[in-house]
Amino acid sequence: MSGDLLLQLVLPFMVATALAVTRITGAILVTPAFTRLGLAGIIRGGVALALTLPLTPVLTEALQNGPPLSPALVTAILLKELVLGIAIGLLFGVPIWAAELAGDLLDLQRGSTAAALLDPSAIAESSITATFFAISLLMLFFAAGGFDLLVKGLYTSYRLWPVASLGPVFDSGAAQLLLKLLDEIMRFALRLAAPIVIALLFTDLAMALLARTAPQLNIFELSLSAKSLVFSVLLLIYSAFMLEYMRQDISRLFDAEPFLRQLAPRQP
Q1: What is the spatial distance between Cα 103 and Cα 134, in angstroms, rounded to a whole number?
Q2: pLDDT tens for residues 75-128?
Q3: Best CA proximity match to 138, nearest among 196, 98, 107
Q4: Taking Cα atoms as reference points, which of 243, 25, 182, 117 lies closest to residue 34?
Q5: Is 127 domain-assigned?
Q6: Are 154 and 256 within 8 A, CB to CB?
Q7: CB–CB of 100/187 below 8 Å?
């Protein structure tokens, strides 16, 4: 009898913890703020569990006061929570991927796409400048308190999309909001890369004029060296302005709560 009583007391807590941790785990799996740090295995699970603990008592009480959940319904909710967590994680990854896109544009413009680094988060190669921009933004993200915004967005999602419901009812303008998000990625990437890209374009024009005046020179090899030199010098100068620009946009880009409220303003 004591064993059955203990099981009745512990089971709701275990179910609530499993349901709550699934969404956070899905977000951690794809969010660059976690994957870029190399969190894996026990460490990743520990972070997810630590973020789940404040939610567990509230969810346990909600499950005890609500209708009983069948095993099939619990399985469906777990799948829904995982997909929803991955979607929220993709939203948090937008600023980092925008910075990587800016770095890819710069490396493409200076003809250095062959040089790449292994990205442990995606098990794929990433250009050198893209990696530099992503790490710089992550550094500012944690230094400026961006982790608090990330956790706030995760916890807000539980108010907007309760765990016990099978899914949110999206607003009619959800598709337009997603397109606006993609537009924000391109805008941020282009603004970040534009100053150096313009300088590299002028370098190309100078190399074209040099090719007309001195056709005996190997302009192709010379242009690669010249653009790399211009890029290196400008990046040192631009870094101070770039970091300040990133700092100003961190709170706006990583604050996902307003976007989540617009995406799902009503519940099923």
Answers
A1: 8
A2: 888 888 888 888 888 888 878 888 888 888 888 877 765 555 555 555 556 778
A3: 98
A4: 25
A5: yes
A6: no
A7: no
